[in-house]
Amino acid sequence: MESIIHFDEILDLVGTPENKLKRYQRCLKEFESLNYDDPFIQQIRKELIQLEISLNPHIGPTATSMTTRSQQKLTKDRSA
What does DSSP assign to residue 6? Predict the structure, then answer.
């Protein structure tokens, strides 16, 4: 999805990778509480995992419960 690549520039939210990670975590938490999912949300999950890996390469993508939930959701999305 091209929209996710330019999302920060469009909303003028360019910041550190840590800030982007926090925004993505909040976003996913909100959508999960609403039990909502679509291709855009799936892209955010993928980006969240990539950010966590890049910020914590020694512990990998299972560093937080949010990432674990995101990975589980991605696996479910792919199998559907």
Answer: S
